[in-house]
Design a protein that fits this description.
This protein has 242 residues and is mainly alpha-helical. 56% of the residues lie in helices and 5% in strands. 26% of the residues are buried. GO terms for molecular function: calcium ion binding. Keywords: Calcium.
């Protein structure tokens, strides 16, 4: 691997920078699939048939993201509703390039899709999280999740406290009363609207719009940065003590 590293360095790849040596080392380690300390022709030939995704060779384009965001807001009115209804259909708290590209196709977005993606995927991880997409929406959901887990153990157990009449459905009025009683101070109406973004679920007895456990349960599997989770839990405990 030494001679290959020297050849790459002589050819100027990667361009000089603080991480040049680390990037070169990462490439060589990846090409040396069997860890035998050498690279043969077959280790390189597969690259001829590889087609890199569009975002990987795109530059960040803030204007393209602004145009796409405006289109999302015109269609769905709020970033969180767009995330729930269009982008993150599997409620995984992240979207892939294919999901992003498919959403742009459904919106008939004709701008720079790869550039819009790169504006959000700053770390080139290949996925976009809710926090990268819209920090205020991430704050809302993370705050509710942390509050529910701190006070009740999980979001699913929290739902039992929200469902005060035991009907299996929670109306906006019930949701507001429970959040006020147990001191969650987030935007209750916005969260309610975005948990059931299409607004089709109604209580059979009252005819009022409602949410069910399945509309909330996805939050139990969400992963939050540990430091962020500790901060949110501290806030929830502080409100409970007050």
């Amino acid at each position: 691997l030494g001679p290959l590293a020297a050849a790459l360095r002589a050819l100027g790849w990667p361009p000089r920078g603080e991480d040049a040596a680390a990037r070169r080392s990462a490439l060589l380690t990846s090409l040396d699939a069997y860890g035998c300390g050498l690279v043969v022709r077959a280790d390189l030939e597969w690259l001829d048939g590889w087609r890199a995704p569009e975002w990987l060779h795109s530059e960040p384009d803030a204007e393209a993201w602004r145009q796409l965001r405006d289109l999302l807001l015109r269609t769905y009115r709020h970033p969180l509703r767009a995330w729930r209804m269009l982008l993150d259909r599997d409620s995984s708290n992240q979207i892939s390039w294919l999901e992003f590209k498919d959403a742009c196709r459904k919106l008939s977005f004709s701008g720079n899709v790869g550039g819009a993606w790169r504006t959000l995927d700053c770390d080139l991880s290949g996925t976009i999280s809710m926090r990268e997409y819209d920090p205020p929406s991430a704050e809302l959901l993370e705050s509710f999740k942390s509050w529910a887990e701190t006070l009740f153990g999980s979001v699913s157990l929290c739902y039992k406290a929200l469902d005060q009449d035991g009907s299996g459905l929670v109306t906006l009025a019930e949701f507001k009363r429970a959040c006020s009683k147990y001191r969650w101070h987030g935007d209750v109406r916005l969260l309610f609207d975005c948990l059931d973004p299409d607004g089709k679920r109604t209580d059979a007895h009252t005819g009022k719009r409602s949410i069910a456990l399945e509309d909330l349960a996805f939050l139990d599997s969400w992963q939050i940065d540990p430091a962020r989770e500790e901060e949110l839990a501290g806030r929830a405990l502080g409100r409970e003590a007050a």
